[in-house]
Amino acid sequence: MHLDLPTIALLAGVAIVAFLLGRASARRRDTDLVSAQLAARPVTPPTDLREAVLGLLALNRRIEAIKLYRVRTNVGLAEAKVAVEAIEAGGFPAAGTPSPPPPASSGDLAAQAGSLKARGLTIQAIKVVREQTGMSLKDAKDFVDRL
């Protein structure tokens, strides 16, 4: 049996496509197995922040642990990351973590953000609003835009 070059190239292409589809299918099955295992063990965060963070870390969910710490303590990303690492190492950073500043009254915040905006520092104004209120980026931008 004699095969010409285009036929060989076509067969090689079909073999490569079949191989890649098989690998993608196997990877999808592995992901489905992990998802099924996680769904079988529902994670209900306890009220204690340290226990909740440790529970997420035990499930290899570091990013979710950092997010949880940020939401519950109103600290920045860097502070939350350091705090979660301290919790993982066996400590609890509550005493060493700076407490969030008290929220400014809306009049003070509006005046401060308005002053920054008037000087052409709109991005800094948005940052100040986000830091003091915990607003999302869109909400803080809308607030500053209305000033």
Provide a descriptive summary of the structure in words.
The chain is mostly helical. The protein has 3 domains: 7-42; 43-100, no CATH class; 106-145, no CATH class. Helices cover 71% and strands 0% of the residues. It is built from 7 helices and no strands. It has helices at 5-40, 49-58, 62-73, 77-88, 106-118, 122-133, 137-145. The longest helix has 36 residues, at 5-40. The protein is elongated, with a radius of gyration of 26 Å. It starts with a helix and ends with a helix. 12% of the residues are buried. Residues 41-47 and 94-104 have low confidence and may be disordered.
Strand content: under 5%
From the N-terminal CA to the C-terminal CA, the straight-line distance is 81 Å
State mean pLDDT (0 to 100 scale). 76
User: How many strands in all?
Assistant: 0
Described by strand count, sense and barrel closure, the largest sheet is:
none
Order of helices and strands: HHHHHHH
How many distinct helices? Answer: 7
Spans of 5+ residues with little confidence (pLDDT < 50)?
Answer: 41-47, 94-104
- Helical coverage, percent range: over 70%
> Measured on Cα atoms, how large is the radius of gyration?
26 Å
**Count of domains:** 3
Shape: elongated
Structural class: mainly alpha
Supply database-style keywords.
single chain; 147 residues; 0% strand; mainly alpha; elongated; 3 domains
